[in-house]
Amino acid sequence: QSRDKRQILALPLPGDCLGAESLSTGAPSPYSATTLAATTVVYLAPDVLQTLLDDLPDFQEVFLKLITNRLKQFVTLVHDLAFRDVTSRLAMILVARAETEGQPVAGGIVFDRLLSQQEFADMVGTAREVVYRTFKKFEDEELVRLTRTSILIRDLETLRTIALQESR
Predict the structure, then answer these.
(1) pTM for this entry
(2) What angle do CA 43, 18, 74 make, to 5 degrees?
(3) Residues of the chain with confidence (pLDDT) below 70
(4) Longest dimension (CA), the chain
(5) 85-163 belongs to CATH 1.20.120.1200
(6) CB hemisphere CA count around 15 (13 angstroms)
């Protein structure tokens, strides 16, 4: 986050780990975290991490997978910001949320609307107004329905197709 711009890097799920990529170096994390709901946080000091890595080979494997997954996530974000347009990036977020948090209901898949339009904009790397227009387009095409508290995905397959499109 800079003074006037912010990039949301991820929406971790319960049990996910944040900041592990900084633990092994002891350097401060280059990003901060904000919770959207009540959260229990476990802090692992760098010396404790080093002891776990030295003494437990299974922990080494888990830690390496965690760091590798985070690196993949960041590389994917850079790729998406460079090669996908806002419509595709917003569709990707909606598909991912539907797949991880969605509940089947009559007419589609619904999940809680935890993010404001500004926060969606911060995730896709654009202005709030562009996200507003893109959501409006999705609603007009009957792909989604937004309320103040939820998002109903009405056509997941079409959203998935949009999400996979790269800019030309």
Answers:
(1) 0.76
(2) 160
(3) 1-4, 24, 26, 168
(4) 57
(5) no
(6) 0
